[in-house]
Amino acid sequence: MEILTWTYILVGISFALYIGIAIWSRAGSTQEFYVAGGGVSPLANGMATAADWMSAASFISMAGIISFSGYDGSVYLMGWTGGYVLLALLLAPYLRKFGKFTVPDFVGDRYYSNTAKVVAVICALFISFTYVAGQMRGVGIVFSRYLEVPIEWGVVIGMCIVLFYAVLGGMKGITYTQVAQYCVLIFAYMVPAIFISMQLTGNPVPQLGLGGSVADGTPLLDKLDGVLGELGFAAYTSGRKSITDMFMITLALMVGTAGLPHVIVRFFTVPRVKDARLSAGYALVFIAILYTTAPAIAAFGMYNAIESTSEKKISELPAWISTWQKTGLIAVDDKNDDGKVQYLADPTANELSIDRDIMVLASPEIAQLPNWVVGLVAAGGMAAALSTAAGLLLVISTSVSRDLFKTFRPDISDKKELRIARIAAAGAVILAGYFGVNPPGFVAEVVAFAFGLAAASFFPVIIMGIFSSRINKEGAISGMLTGLIFTLGYIVYFKFISPELNSAEHWWFGVSPEGIGSIGMILNFIVCVTVSKFTPAPPQAVQDMVQEIRIPRGAGKAQDH
Q1: Distances (CA, A) of 4 to 144, 146, 201, 317
Q2: Are residues 440 and 463 in the same domain?
Q3: Which among 453, 495, 476 is positioned nearest to 129, based on CA atoms?
Q4: What is the Cα–Cα distance from 311 to 308, expressed in whole angstroms?
Q5: CB 454 within 8 A of CB 128
Q6: Does residue 554 lie in a domain region?
């Protein structure tokens, strides 16, 4: 069967499964809509958390970045993995014991202020919209290639699917849908990785194949370094970014993880604190399967892409080039009219332009794998993008209905609150779709901005809210606003206002927009501590509550406060 036929079959089956689960598990109360009733098993929650975590940035874009950036792309791998460990060990159990459904909920109670809560809602909305824009972009890329529709229509189709099961099922529907999506995406990621590893190195384990040798006996990475060197590129295994920027990006991705609202809320869907820790452990194992495979997929993809295109006559280019050209994500320009394609580091002579977001999706076609594998990867890419998009949309709807509307209208009925949450989710889908069609960068870059905003706004007030009883509402509000405004302003300036200055010689302290969240976080800490020092201490009841959070007892079931 043709690729398109396999894609329709596999994507259709997976979508039918997701929608069926959403109907079966539709939310009937706000507690089911927000935290799935607090009754999800640790194993199921671990899978759902992994699916929530492994977005389009992880599935589609991370290996693509590593393919084109080599060693420099490892910051995403290190930052996102280390960040999840930080979240699981340092924050999740305490936040779960606190018993609130959302980060603004926690901020509002811990800092005894509706103003602080509203500021936290604003931060959550900025983070979530930035993050979901990357997911919708990923959805559009997948649909535009495999369903042969323009990327704009790909985004619209994805919007409709997400809207259906996120609005209908809430967290309950999303949780069980994400369990299915994890199974689909991990299978879709590993199958081609195993195939290609066998082709290139004879080893069926991609992680080991990365350190293996190609047919002529040369180690794969040495061969890749040599091929790239001949084309004028830096060696695949060498770094080009400064150590400072590498450190700052990694730090921003790590601590940004700890402030991501859609991941934190996952730890409220299980019955006990013990289950929150256990589900975090399960999720880490499930995440590691993909994350340890990504460097292998990246190296395999880059090697195969160069081998199949460099110095080939245009008439002899493989079929995958013309297929992806239709999406606008690959461009061929014979600048010297010699009828051949040159892939070179010199942009004035380079005749082949490949969007880095397509590397994982195109790898099966580049390696000439069976058509069903190509269709499977399409289903996996959609599962990854849609699972995270759904979680983010729930955070947006919850922030509007629970953290904003109910804060000022506490007497609102359960039914009306649920209706407002669904309306907010619908509005969020439409706005996310716009940013999916008009993204500020490639998928992982957009997601990195979301992590930077989370690092600069939420991480300091969450960490100090748990481990310091002296930080007060004035400090928290000042710190969040400082971190958010500084980081957002820096990103907007270099990405939108003056993109021509977006280079190392113009960055402040040599830190790129992807890593500036680390500086924003430091400013947040400084402002938060300084302002708290010169303003009254929190009430004694709040200080006692902070001490109680860290005592490992009294871990009952989540309550709807």
Answers
A1: 12, 6, 29, 21
A2: yes
A3: 453
A4: 9
A5: no
A6: no
